[in-house]
Design a protein that fits this description.
2 helices; disordered C terminus
Length: about 80
């Protein structure tokens, strides 16, 4: 597999993770809202939501790095010896 193919595969992988995380975050927000309306303590769920947002931010950052690598023609652009 060429660097370009590898980077494109990595981009697709990151996109899948981002889409999955967005679904999970959306569902957790719904559950938090439902449980707040019932008067339940949602402190731990809100902590989990915060952590999930951080993970999602990291996946977006990873995706940006992959896009830069693709624009540079693959990972060789990142290696000064390559």
């Amino acid at each position: 597999m060429t660097n370009f193919q590898s980077e494109r595969a990595e981009l697709a992988h990151a996109d899948r993770h981002i889409a999955d995380a967005n679904r999970r975050v959306g569902r957790l927000i719904e559950r938090i809202t439902e449980n707040k309306n019932k008067g339940w303590d949602t402190t731990e769920a809100e902590r989990l939501l915060s952590l999930m947002h951080e993970v999602l931010d990291q996946w977006h950052a990873h995706r940006r790095v992959v896009l830069v690598a693709i624009a540079r023609g693959g990972r060789l652009g990142w290696n000064s010896t390559g």
